[in-house]
User: Fold WG containing repeat-containing protein from Sporobacter termitidis DSM 10068.
Amino acid sequence: MRKRAIAVLLAALLPLLSSCGVHASPPPGSGGPSASPAPVLSPGSGLKVKTDWSALAPYAPDKDVYTRLKEGLMPELVPSKDYGLLLPYVGEVFYDATFTGFDLSYKGLVTADGTMVTDDVYSEAYQATYYGASWDETYSKPLYVLAKYPYVPPDKGQWFGGAWAMHAVCAPDGSWVTPFDYTNVYCLDKVMMLVRDWKTNDVDVMDYGGHILYNLKDLPCADKLDPLFYYRVDETFYGEGYCAVRGGYLNELTGAYHDTGFEYAKLFSDGLAAVKKDGRWGYIDKSFKFVIAPMAAQYAGAFHNGRAYVDLSGGQGKLIDKKGHTLLTAWSIGFYDTDESGRIAYADSAGKIHVLDNNLKELGAADETALSYIPGGGVCVRADGKTTLYFKDKTYELPGDCLVTSARGNFIVCQFPADEKACLMTLDGKTLAETGYDDIIKDVVTGPSGKTAVILASSDYERPSYGVYAADGTKLFSGGGNAEYNALSGLLCVYDNRFFAYADFDGNIVFRLSLLNSLPD
Assistant:
């Protein structure tokens, strides 16, 4: 009976086994490899498959592109007038094994044609930058800030050094460099503050030509400075040559102090500064006299595009011009200081959002749920299956129901929720390329050759990624990491998870270095 059952089972399995047979060569026209040997069937051991690798391209590692100034160690920048422009590069990355989020990358300096002049010995190497009155305005200056961790014996400190980094400043052509005497460096609009001792305000003030102008502790007004004065320069990024100090102002270039006697003094922007006197906010010019009389307000914003926002009591606010005239009163006003055209969006008492142009002419209105502000300036309104974009000085009707997530120059990125996709497009609605769903436009730049590149970045900050596209939508680079434009050299800077590179706008690599991605011991 058992033999008969086995025979029946084999009869049922044979057709299935025969359908699993592997041909010794592919059928005509299949396009498969022409020399694919049949797998060997060993009695008693079941079916064994022999892998055919002939159809795969041979592995070729990415090639690094660089030269070295000399053989051997290059632990310091040796000042010279022969380098030409120097650029920071990333050479080695240490990922924190304790999962505290502290990763450390070491940097070096390389010439604009790809010759290393230092090894990756700096914990920081970056171009001096300060912030403008608007939250998205940044301005770079032609100096580099360098940082090094001092050597600490392994039994005395952490794997990354266990001590404060010491800082120096150098010329972008490497012709001079200061000693590493500073615990920190802060960039203002006219000068840099090089901190020796924050407890005593021992701070060298250097202009962007590399000249030390004075030291804070030596000023006649030193007793007027707050303890940790330099630590408050996050409030003095863009002061048009003046630091706000208590109720007065310090001239960045001369060190002269103007004691105005105000309760609080803010930064100069558009030639005016908000100050508080007797609990009321007004605006002064650079003669330190009122041009807009103090008024009852909870907040007085910086002037930008000739306008400032003043927060009144009861949740209302108003937009004023530089003569103090009220241009608009509403429950809330926003976006006027970040849009390239000076566009304004405000909410009425019913919660509806109104969009006005630079001349305060209404462009449109929508419920708050249908409206979104766009990084880079602009307002997107989605209603009745249509999308309207208010950007710069024009209104754009975009195809279908899409969400504009970013806009720069003549380019936008749109999400199409129904199709679960996103596209890089022109303002007239032409699709250039499909992008990652979370991508936004980081920058639109034009190089020395006149060619334009669009730099995208993922809005998912836990998994950063980048894409660099030509103006016609051709993808030049993409990957995990970041990309940006280096204005000093006119090159694209790519900080990939696997390598660091500089390239031109045609995608040609000028410098490339694979990253070791090491873990700390």
About this structure: The chain is about 5% helix and 45% strand.
